[in-house]
Design goal:
The protein is α+β, with helices and mostly antiparallel strands. The chain contains three helices and six strands. The strands form two sheets. It has a four-stranded antiparallel beta sheet, with helices on one face.
Length: 81
């Protein structure tokens, strides 16, 4: 199955709640992922919070063009019971 993010909500700090097309949902803390040219600007929480789900890419994207593979998000989220 090809994974796609269906929903995403900002929780706090650098934590995002995600729901995938297979029904799995959970939270991911991206604080340690904000390095490099594309992600460093997202250390500003006001910029970090400006993500959206891109239905074409099937993942979350930010205004500056940064995105993360849905597989990475899926594998690294903390599943909510």
């Amino acid at each position: 199955m090809i994974l796609h993010v269906r929903e995403a909500k900002y929780i706090r700090d650098y934590v995002i709640w995600l729901k995938f097309n297979d029904g799995a949902e959970g939270e991911i803390d991206l604080a340690r992922e904000l390095d490099g040219e594309m992600f460093a600007p997202l250390k500003d929480r006001s910029q970090f919070q400006k993500f959206r789900v891109d239905s074409e890419l099937g993942t979350i994207v930010w205004e500056n063009g940064a995105d993360l593979a849905p597989e990475f998000l899926y594998e690294n989220m903390r599943v909510l019971a």
